[in-house]
Write a structure and sequence with these properties.
The protein has 10 helices and 10 strands. Helix content is 41%, strand content 20%. Helix 1 packs parallel to helix 2 and helix 7 packs parallel to helix 8. It starts with a strand and ends with a helix. It catalyses: (7R,8S)-7,8-diammoniononanoate + CO2 + ATP = (4R,5S)-dethiobiotin + ADP + phosphate + 3 H(+).
Length: 224
Amino acid sequence: MKGFFITGTDTEIGKTTITAGLTHALAQRGLRVAPVKSLAAGCDAEGHNDDVERLFAAQTLGLTREEICPLLLREPCAPHVAARLDGVAIERDALLAAIRRTAAKAELAVVEGVGGFRVPLIDGWDTADLAADLQLPVVLVVGLRLGCINHALLTAEAVRARGLRLAGWVANAVDPSMPHVTDNLDALQAGLATPCWGHVPRLPDPSAAAVAAHLNSSLALEAL
């Protein structure tokens, strides 16, 4: 299994946006890329989840929504709570097998985690364990806002403590009014000590193609 595990400094900081953009950017290099949303919590009355729809639109392999997201829960809350409310069990082996089946349909898989790096899934297994089980290089999405340096450095420390390689990071503008952006980017680069794959500004239409224009796919290929 080749590819990347996409994690973030928090929830709602653009992991799916970057996953879709990276999928598009690598596909533009001629690679067969499978985006995977390991699990998602929150869907509308028709059973649609916005993140899954975004990844579905970004891929070119003809994957089904169920292949892209093997576990979709209804309530928009922590996965272990959403699973309890839905009356379903998150099964470690089954989830890993589903992710690997989708990855096997491509040359590369871009697997997105849930929330930040350490989100509980079941007793004794969280999203950091999921990343460790998959053994993919990690890409950290840093949501640019006040406090992001601390969140990013703590996450990088946690990633490396699991024996995983932090292959790169992406700065994603979540607070358009954030002051001193350049100073923050410099501090992040020094502290994370791994290449920055791009700085994605606030976009009027954050489509996969628009995001990909701000990502350095050459760095991604070098990291494989």
